[in-house]
Design a protein that fits this description.
By secondary structure, the protein is of the alpha/beta class. Helix content is 16%, strand content 13%. It has 4 helices and 6 strands.
């Protein structure tokens, strides 16, 4: 190591750059911002999607599909996941799968699929089962029960609103 290798604190006591203080500073007049245009304004910075004024790609690409307000998100879990996550004789419910972290994310219904092998006898309850998953769970000595999904509104039926209001503080 030599003295020229030491660079810690080189800029520690460096003087603040004073811009807009005459041509001798090298940063006078326009203060390093150039002439005219949006970039000269204080506090201005281009949005990350700004393409210099041309029609942005988000507007050039056509719209596709729609967001289904009434669609249900179905989470699928394989029997091999149940095999590794639970002990023999356990009662497996959608709530237990959600809290234990086996079925992560946002979902409304749970479907058990038949990928992998299962040797433990489990009492599994879910909203849906594939034919193969049902056969494998029953063959391992377990039981299967279907849980009704979240209640859907029938067309024309209105939501019941709570009309009671709490007293003002």
């Amino acid at each position: 190591m030599r003295l020229n290798d030491i660079n810690k604190g080189v800029h520690k006591n460096r003087k603040r750059l004073r811009i807009g203080r005459g041509p001798g500073s090298g940063h006078g007049k326009t203060s390093g911002r150039g002439h005219k245009g949006q970039g000269q304004l204080a506090g201005w910075s281009a949005p990350s999607i700004f393409e210099g004024g041309r029609s942005p790609i988000i507007r050039r690409v056509p719209k596709r599909g729609f967001n289904n307000r009434h669609g249900k998100i179905v989470k699928s879990i394989n029997v091999s996941d149940l095999e590794s996550a639970f002990e023999a004789g356990a009662d497996v419910t959608p709530e237990l799968l959600r809290t234990s972290g086996v079925a992560k994310g946002i979902w409304h219904e749970l479907k058990i699929l038949g990928d992998g092998e299962i040797s433990k006898s489990l009492s599994v309850s879910a909203h849906r089962f594939s034919k193969q998953a049902r056969e494998k769970i029953l063959a391992a000595g377990g039981s299967v029960s279907e849980v009704p999904g979240p209640a859907a509104l029938v067309k024309g039926q209105k939501k019941v609103r709570n009309t009671e209001q709490s007293a003002s503080p």
